[in-house]
Amino acid sequence: MAAGDGGGAYVLDGAHGRPISSVVIIVAVRSQALPLVKRFQLTEDATLLAEGIPCVRYYGIYKDLCINVLWLGQDLAHGKEIQTQALFSNDCYLDNGAAIAYVADLLKIPAIFIKAVSYIVDGKKLDAESHLQNLTGVSSMLDEAVVGAIEFINGKRLSEL
Length: 161
Hints:
- This is Nucleoside phosphorylase domain-containing protein.
- InterPro entries: MTAN (IPR044580), Nucleoside_phosphorylase_sf (IPR035994).
- One of its GO terms (biological process) is L-methionine salvage from methylthioadenosine.
- By secondary structure, this protein is α+β, with helices and mostly antiparallel strands.
- It has one domain: Nucleoside phosphorylase domain (Rossmann fold), CATH 3.40.50.1580.
- It is built from four helices and eight strands; from the N terminus they run βββαβββββααα.
- Helix 1 runs parallel beside helix 4.
- It is globular, with a radius of gyration of 17 Å.
């Protein structure tokens, strides 16, 4: 059963009374996932979540939290990371955060977003090599921000955030 706060936000009854127990972190590229996997000593789940969907799950327990890191994986047909492949072949970028927010809202699951943006190159189109170099720096900053958020969330109730 869900209870509303009058502003459209809903949480499961009793969710305010118990500490947060699990966290799902979704990342677009492997270089963002691996520092978190190492930091939280997560184990890879080699099975795909659904047939044909290139997604890798890492999981484990850190302090009082069940941590799940989902890396969107590689395009198995092309051997390239899906986000990078889409970025350079279509000259566009699909914001996965918007899709995640939509589903979280439908399911009435609280969501916190931490977004890291790679450096913008002025005056010329960003090539694949520059993109990957920028991604390394951003991945480091993202790692620090996610670890800080996990440390903050651990042991807290939803109502305490």
